[in-house]
Amino acid sequence: MEIRRIGVLGAGTMGHGIAQVCAQSGYQVNLQDIKDEFVEAGISKIQKFLDGSVERKRMTQDEADLTSSRIKGTTDLREAAKDVDLVIEAIVEDINIKKDVFKELDQICPEDAIFASNTSAQSITEMAMVTKHPDRFIGMHWFNPPQLMRGIEVIVTDKTSQETLDTMVNLCKKLGKEPGICKDSPGFIVNRLLQIWYNESLNMFDEGVADPQDIDTALKVAYNFRMGPFELRDLVGLDVALVVSETHYRELMREQFKPPRCLVMKVKAGDLGRKTGRGFYEYESKT
Amino acid sequence: MRIRTIIIIGETEFKTKLQELFSKAGFKVIMSDLNQDYDKQASEADLVLETVSEDIVLKEEVFKRCDAKCPEQAILATTTAKPWVTQIAEVTRRPEKVVGLNFTKNPFDEKYLVQIIRGLQTSDDTIQVSKELLEQVGVTAVKIGETPGYILDRVIASVVNEAALMYTTKLATVEDIDKMMKICTNWPMGPFEFADTIGVDKVVEILESLSQQLGPRYLPCFLLRKMVNAGWLGKKTKRGFYIYS
Ligand SMILES: NC(=O)c1ccc[n+]([C@@H]2O[C@H](COP(=O)([O-])OP(=O)(O)OC[C@H]3O[C@@H](n4cnc5c(N)ncnc54)[C@H](O)[C@@H]3O)[C@@H](O)[C@H]2O)c1
Hints:
The complex is a heterodimer.
Chain A: E1 5-9, H1 13-24, E2 28-32, H2 36-55, H3 61-69, E3 71-74, H4 77-81, E4 86-89, H5 95-108, E5 114-117, H6 124-128, E6 137-141, E7 151-156, H7 162-174, E8 178-183, H8 190-206, H9 212-223, H10 229-236, H11 238-252, H12 261-268
Parallel strand pairs in A: 1-2, 1-4, 2-3, 4-5, 5-6, 7-8
Antiparallel strand pairs in A: 6-7
Chain B: E1 5-10, H1 14-24, E2 28-32, H2 38-41, E3 47-51, H3 56-69, E4 75-78, H4 85-89, E5 98-105, E6 112-118, H5 124-137, E7 140-145, H6 150-168, H7 174-185, H8 191-198, H9 200-214, H10 222-230
Parallel strand pairs in B: 1-2, 1-3, 3-4, 4-5, 6-7
Antiparallel strand pairs in B: 5-6
Helix pairs in contact in B: 6-8, 6-9, 9-10
């Protein structure tokens, strides 16, 4: 089926970027959030990004104007969803709120509209089952920042139809993105494998095999990883890391996903990485 | 202590690469192998660098003979990729001077990383001298303890194992898994490309060894074992997760 108009729900970190990418590729976009100020903040972030692109000659002024003219902000879900071919949900990571929104969408959207969720950790299947058309429900997992990251994980459930999948794969390509297809499962492809990469590195530290710096250096120098696991953990924040780690362990119930002890202890001690000036490494000033 | 003379004892072609590295840095390098009286030659060396094939019996013999003839302060190093340093050290009268120096070639820029492996008996001094030596040679070195696969291949083998499980359970294809790891999180290679580069046999061996030491969570995925049985070991056999022509 052909997509013309897209509703993007949530104008936060991900939502505003997703809306921008869609508009840049020629789609009409309704960008919705719960408060005017959130919608406005999202739209002004888009404007800033577009202005920057024009300045750096990545885009002409006309292209930028055309892009922003395609985005319509609203706080009204009905307004945002009543005439769209696709909804991309990028609201808070709360399964119950997401389910409520999809139930509502079911009443509002055209019969053949596709529903996509950008969730990182909730079950696509669980969300699909609250709608009348789980065959038209799919996961569309973008990476941050959506304007720059080229990959999108397209998540299918047992109910997703081939047509829905084909439509999404085509859409990703039209947006200039690379789709990777994965069945609904905890962490999908990327986050699940990253967990193993992190855990195994942290486990070696716990076992006394090597220090963070030596592990980071080895992986960067020998295998060209851009950053080591410990540096990345510190950058993202160990509290956030622990939550993600616990989610994977709870969902997958296998030992290799168990949060490493050093991570648990650092969080208990309040050493959360760069933001507190100390994590696996020491940092001079808090930023 | 200062290292001036190095004897490299080995059978592998990697030997000449080592010779090049150390000669260029100004060390006197003696090249030897198992067909020569390497122990006699070793009597004037400050460092023995053993790089014979991965056979524990062979390695123990080399260390025993070198230990008998080498100067008292000489360091005996093995390039083994296996966690054998402690065991090898045990056959010498200088276990504190035995160390592992494992060279890994970066598949992209061909530079080396050395993992300095500390056996149970290895002294701080031996580690320090090794570290300084490698600094002089201009290769990056990291200090680690003995563990199957050491740092690098232990991490990679674990990732490969999970990726293989995801593929076997039909969550995603080999191509999509590799592609997503590269473009969504900037990995230099995907897990299956890593497996084919390192060798599926090596991945399985590391996982088996890890599972013996640390528990069943490391047990290799059935697919990996089958690939080893089929001789699909990766680039070296022209077939692994991908086919190479
Ligand atoms: N941040 C990331 O790196 C990232 C990456 C991939 C996926 N995700 C997923 O994307 C989703 C959004 O994450 P984010 O980082 O953009 O969060 P965010 O907090 O920046 O934005 C969420 C926005 O949703 C709005 N919102 C909340 N409830 C709403 C509702 N009922 N209807 C409409 N809007 C509502 C909030 O006001 C907020 O502006 C989450 O599911 C998250 O798991 C995030």
